[in-house]
Automatic annotation (TrEMBL):
SUPFAM superfamilies: Sortase (SSF63817). InterPro entries: Sortase, Sortase_Class_E, Sortase_dom-sf, Sortase_E. GO terms for molecular function: hydrolase activity. Pfam families: Sortase. The chain crosses the membrane at residues 54-74. It comes from Lentzea waywayandensis. Residues 1-43, 92-111 are annotated as: Disordered. The active site is at residues 170, 280. Keywords: Hydrolase, Membrane, Transmembrane, Transmembrane helix. The keyword Membrane applies. Residues 1-10 have a biased composition (Pro residues). Residues 20-34 have a biased composition (Acidic residues). This is LPXTG-site transpeptidase (Sortase) family protein.
Amino acid sequence: MPPRPRPVDPPTEVIPRVEDDYDDYDDDEYYDDEPAAKDALPPDSMARKTVRGVGEALITMGLVVLLFVVYEVYVTDLLSAEKQQDATAALDSEWNSDVVTPPPADPNRQSKLNLIEGKAFAKMYIPVFGNDWKFSVVEGTTDKHLEIGPGHYKDTAQPGEAGNFSIAGHRVGKGAPFNDLDLLESCNAVVVQTQTQWFVYRVLPMSSEVAGWAANPKAKQAACTGVAPLSTTLGDAYSKTVGQEIVVPTQGEVIAPIPHQVGTTVPADKQARLLTLTTCHPRFSDKQRLIVHAIETKSYPVADGFVPPEMTEG
């Protein structure tokens, strides 16, 4: 029997190759002519615009305040440092070129200084604040004067005189000489130098120390020699004169010859030789004044190479 013929396989169908029209590819564009409504952003409401405007205004105000603080605290410090340096250089030049008049032999008398508004006439040191704390003191207390450094209240006593040698200074910015004035404690020294003399003042007992000062071990320390509540040594007229106090700006009586006793007549030989330092309080505010009272305890003639031993108390 002849063999059966094999079935013929169907021809394999070739998948036709798709020819990409690369030349036309870049021309193909796909647009959705009608975007979905949900993709559209809602228009800004009036409330949103208001909030955005307020936010931008607050940011702008914050930047302005920040720049002002930087200027007041840092830039004015640099400007004042330059002015203080110039004032000190002028004072040194004057002291080195002038003929020095010796101090009076009578300790109850004081040579009058020739004070010129805006010019430095003395140097001040607070040893407890460090060796680098030193400022030239100018005559006058206007803003222009205090940009140079601590300023002497005109018509108050001069260094070493009976009465109240009174000095004002900034606490923040413009050199901030009295930034740490609140850190002074009773018996801390404040040294003032003129062309011919050194004067050592020491902070009086604080109000909290007055009542028990005699029994206070601190009163026996060498640094407190000559320091005592003035009410016990000079009478009730000085009962309000303590080492530190806070007052309102209108209380100018703190720089009276006898603090808080305006119009009180007391002979000069019965008056204490005081130093009063004033500055704004608290920091970054001028609502109050911080006052420090000190009393002269020693004086020395200026001599080449001599530095008062109190200068080493820092």
